[in-house]
Amino acid sequence: MKRIIMISAAAAMWAAAPAQQALWSNVPLKSPEIHPDNTVTFRLKAPLASEVLITGDFLPKQRVNTNRGEVEMPGYAAMTMTPDSVWEYTTAGVLSPELYSYSMIVDGVKINDPSNVYTIRDIATTTNVFLIEGDYASLYKVSDVPHGTVSKTWVPSGKLNKDRRMTVYTPAGYESGDKRYPVLYLLHGMGGDENAWSELGRATQILDNMIASGNAEPMIVVMPNGNAWQQGAPGETAAGFVTPTMLPGAGYDGKYRFEDIFPEIVEYIDNNYRTVPDKAHRAIAGLSMGGSHSFKISAENPDMFDYVGLFSAAVLRELASDPNDPATSEKLRTQFAKNPKLYWIAIGSDDFLYDQNVKLRKYLDDNSLPYKYYESPEGHIWKNWRIYLSMFLPQIFK
Amino acid sequence: MKRIIMISAAAAMWAAAPAQQALWSNVPLKSPEIHPDNTVTFRLKAPLASEVLITGDFLPKQRVNTNRGEVEMPGYAAMTMTPDSVWEYTTAGVLSPELYSYSMIVDGVKINDPSNVYTIRDIATTTNVFLIEGDYASLYKVSDVPHGTVSKTWVPSGKLNKDRRMTVYTPAGYESGDKRYPVLYLLHGMGGDENAWSELGRATQILDNMIASGNAEPMIVVMPNGNAWQQGAPGETAAGFVTPTMLPGAGYDGKYRFEDIFPEIVEYIDNNYRTVPDKAHRAIAGLSMGGSHSFKISAENPDMFDYVGLFSAAVLRELASDPNDPATSEKLRTQFAKNPKLYWIAIGSDDFLYDQNVKLRKYLDDNSLPYKYYESPEGHIWKNWRIYLSMFLPQIFK
After folding, report:
1. How far is CA A22 from each of CA A27, A117, B109, B261, rounded to the nearest angstrom?
2. B15 with A71: CB under 8 angstroms?
3. Which of B14, B131, B222 is best to mutate for the A interface (most A CBs within 10 A)?
4. Minimal CA separation from A51 to chain B, in Å
5. Contact (CB<8Å) B273/A175
6. Are B324 and B351 contacting, i.e. CB atoms less than 8 angstroms apart?
7. Which residues of A touch B102 (CB under 8 A)?
8. Contact B111 A116 (CB under 8 A)
9. Nearest neighbour of B147 by CB, restricted to A121, A163, A272
């Protein structure tokens, strides 16, 4: 009997929710509410909860004592229950411009904010997002400018004997015109896929906005799937609605690296899109593992790219400074002998790959191989990669 | 002091969650788990919750007593807490093949299953999905067949003086070939947008699978935004991360209906895609409001479409049988005098628009205007619209 009553209490509350909105001045719960001064209020209706927390990247990370000892965890703060049974939290200060992510924690269960339909998946975790406009973050917003087309399409790999999914951005006017365009190949990191740059990276919005303002040349941007073991993003292949993982799934023989199948992608793009198919009109850039891919692919194909961007690149095992790897060193010298117009390295001062990039720069310096360098605050996070892309675009195809 | 301790308890549990997975045989929580017999188990870790329910379209709707009296609400069932603090629910019986949606309710708060990254938004509500294969539902799965391309692109509207977002499916081989294709214009319902058919409708998968099996002709499918007041789906326009609503937003003057701007879309598609630009190679179909659009657009442009599909169409106000509207009646007679190859009406026997469709069929019967009719069980739901699309495709462009 007790259980039936308990179910009825929870069910009645849930069933009555739409009608109850009438009690709140006829407006649905607004969360997040971005105030004019860029403080933000979050809200959750949860009458039966004992404790509701909010966690997000706008809160500083914290060290917490647990029964496993002290652990570092994302920042969190307690929400406060109002007389309406709505839990609220307003940021202690003004938030600087950024695309932020957050979740709520109801009695220990991490949930998405049911009042906010905007979410982004990062590997197996989905969080809510909101945008504070200004500075770089204004590039992440859909603006009233001409828009490019974003396609999810499939590129055949002869080596892997399968089609593989990729995202292609074509600039505004591509469908209705006959102009040829330069191509940027933009690569994701480990755990990412062909959706990462257009979702977490806001690449579509950055390109639309920067092309419209004249800060970037109109270009095609190809965002392939950089996991040779994977045909496409989780849920987009015959594997079905699998749980996303960071590491390769079972059954991949590892025979070909992504670097090996990459030239097939360039060939397909040049054959089927209106490109300018030469070195001066090709760029490659990537984050983390994608930085490693960009490092190796550009070195292994020295006539392919005039512009290279390494964003928080993982370059340890490929480090040309390693005396055990004269082959890589030789490739790099060949690549630089052909005078690429830009070799751009960017990393955050807190990045766990910082030391690897110090070694890479030392090697380049010691060998008089020219590059440009940008060091940002913070670490291995999308906030930095969106900024790096926004800084890289004005430097290419000029 | 009490508050600090409570926060610590919830935070510690949340922070320790990844490590605690080690206690569960090193596997993350699997939810939903589809068993070989097509029963399904759902799981949620929620040690502090008093009550966890599951709701989904695989459960029969229920009438429940609340403090507002008896209300009809979606079916729900209680989940049971196991000694691991994992709440579980296994379906009472085997689920028939379908793309199902569900949510969990933790102490009255409706949440998405944090173990399942697959969600679909329907207006302002996001729910989890899972697929039981078989029958029609096998068409909703990504299969190992050649894949078409799905593009999010922008079509100019001269009348509205703005670009508007749309989804375009081009069949496998489009990019690499030079063949021309017929075009299906596929329209969403009220509250929907240009993403509805490719997300809730699984149109991409249905087309890939039916074209591969030879049950549908290779075709271009254009899925425009049918809300004249809207440039694109929520979050995809300069309006920003707005809360989705079913009804028109403020500021739209209503000067043009979607039907008025529709011919601009056909002109743009014929000018910029490899179409066969004639009546014999154009079809139009839509659900609910999109059925109304299909009804009116095909009648107002009698030389445009040889194939028309009305899925659960809203046709009351446009009913040609209304003696007060001789103009519509005249248009219908003109349309049918040109002998469209297919006029297909489909609706569920429980649909709230059923009577409207009875009247429409009576008018067509009374006036000897030929059509085909399919009546399914159930009502105004995506399950039916996916089936109707799967039944419509083999009948067009043959």
Report:
1. 7, 21, 18, 37
2. yes
3. B14
4. 7
5. yes
6. no
7. none
8. no
9. A163
Look up the ipTM and state it: 0.92
| Cβ contact B242:B235 at 8 Å | yes
Helices and strands in chain B: count of H runs, count of E runs: 8, 20
Residue of chain B whose alpha carbon sits nearest to that of A168: B151
- Angstroms from B319 CA to nearest CA on chain A: 33
**Closest approach of chain B CAs to the CA of A228, in angstroms?**
17
Residue A165: list chain B partners with CB under 8 A: 147
d(CA B280, CA B398): 10
Contacts of B364 (CB under 8 A, 6+ apart): B343, B370, B371
Three-state DSSP class for residue A207: helix
Q: Which two tokens stand for residue A367?
A: 């060998």
Cα distance between residue B144 and residue A294, in whole Å = 30
One digit per residue, the tens of pLDDT, for chain B of length 398 reads 334 434 455 565 555 554 433 333 334 799 999 999 999 999 999 999 999 999 999 999 888 777 777 777 789 999 999 998 999 999 999 999 999 999 999 999 999 999 999 999 988 889 999 999 999 999 999 999 999 999 999 999 999 999 999 999 999 999 999 999 999 999 999 999 999 999 999 999 999 999 999 999 999 999 999 999 999 999 999 999 998 887 776 667 788 999 999 999 999 999 999 999 999 999 999 999 999 999 999 999 999 999 999 999 998 765 555 655 777 888 999 999 999 999 999 999 999 999 999 999 999 999 999 999 999 999 999 999 999 999 999 999 98
Pick the closest to residue A60 from A357, A350, A386, A360 (CA basis).
Answer: A350
DSSP letter (8 states) at residue B181: B
* Residue that is written with structure tokens 């068409």 in the block: B139
**Full strand arrangement of the beta sheet holding B86-90:** B33-34, B40-45, B86-90, B80-81
What would the 3-class secondary structure string for B66-115 be?
Answer: EECEEEEECCEEECEECCCCEEEEECCCCCCCEEEEEEEEECCEEECCCC
Say if residues A170 and A273 touch (Cβ distance below 8 Å): yes
If one counts every other C-beta atom within 10 angstroms of the C-beta of residue B24, the result is 13
CA of B375 vs chain A CAs: smallest distance (Å): 31
Residues of B in contact with A142 (CB under 8 A): 235-238, 240
Helix (H) or strand (E) holding B363: helix B354-366
The verdict on a CB contact (< 8 Å) between B126 and A142 is no
Q: Inter-chain contact A109–B49, Cβ cutoff 8 Å? A: yes
Of B318, B262, B293, B295, the closest CA to residue B371 belongs to B295
Q: Residue for token digits 């600039």?
A: A171
Name the strand (E) or helix (H) holding A73: strand A69-73
